[in-house]
Recover the amino acids of this structure.
């Protein structure tokens, strides 16, 4: 969504008019969550992040919309890394306050178990927004979410993984608390997380795509278990007020 999206009317129309079974969103502003409740679909959500700004706290949400009944679900709390950040990261965040960088607390993801026609079992949908700090912590958050995975159940994992894989953006890994190796070996994170996808028997439907123009990286993912066949996958050109491109996958 981008929490400071300035095209909320167009974003709402985009979601309302989309032909979808499942729609996952991150960084949903509080007032926009209220509007999503007016749509004729089922909804699950949790706080994506609390942003501690200079004089207020803003809540953003991770949201799963479904045209099919949500039978159960759960929240996935992520650790509070803020006290562990080195001084350089805290200074960088302070300098970047005009671009809405801030202290972030109460972060987490969610999952929902959905009864989809044609599927013998409930499908578990994950919606994740991994931390923009450094690769080690992002990978730990992904693995934390996967502890809620049952490999015998069809699974779809959606979200912004913040995987930085271009030389011009990788220094952010060091600025935000990682090692110099995290900055210099900018392909290492992609190699590691792709390996984890294989270990978890998940297919990255948009492997190699660029979903975020500034970073020139695939930040956004839709992973599907081997129970599904991928019919089509694409990065949509219209960002609808976000800094990320929407992505879609059709599966059978």
């Amino acid at each position: 969504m981008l929490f400071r999206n300035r095209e909320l009317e167009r974003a709402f129309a985009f979601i309302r008019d989309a032909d979808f079974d499942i729609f996952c969103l991150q960084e949903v502003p509080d007032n926009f969550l209220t509007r999503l409740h007016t749509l004729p679909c089922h909804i699950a959500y949790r706080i994506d992040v609390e942003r501690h700004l200079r004089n207020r706290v803003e809540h953003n949400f991770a949201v799963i919309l479904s045209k099919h009944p949500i039978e159960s679900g759960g929240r996935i709390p992520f650790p509070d890394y803020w006290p562990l950040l080195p001084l350089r990261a805290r200074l960088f965040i302070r300098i970047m306050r005009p671009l809405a960088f801030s202290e972030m607390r109460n972060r987490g993801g969610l999952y929902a178990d959905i009864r989809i026609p044609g599927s013998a079992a409930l499908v578990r949908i994950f919606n994740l927004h991994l931390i923009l700090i450094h690769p080690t912590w992002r990978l730990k958050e992904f693995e934390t979410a996967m502890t809620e995975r049952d490999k015998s159940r069809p699974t779809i994992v959606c979200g912004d993984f913040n995987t930085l894989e271009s030389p011009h953006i990788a220094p952010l890994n060091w600025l935000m608390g990682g090692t110099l190796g995290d900055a210099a070996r900018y392909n290492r994170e992609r190699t590691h997380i792709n390996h984890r996808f294989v270990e978890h028997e998940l297919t990255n439907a948009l492997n190699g795509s660029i979903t975020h123009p500034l970073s020139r990286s695939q930040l956004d993912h839709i992973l599907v278990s081997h129970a599904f066949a991928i019919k089509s996958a694409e990065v949509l050109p219209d960002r609808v007020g976000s800094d990320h491109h929407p992505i879609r996958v059709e599966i059978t």
In short: Helices lie at 8-17, 30-36, 87-95, 135-146, 171-175, 180-184, 188-199. Residues 8-251 form a domain with the Deoxyribonuclease I; Chain A fold (CATH 3.60.10.10). The chain has one domain: 8-251.
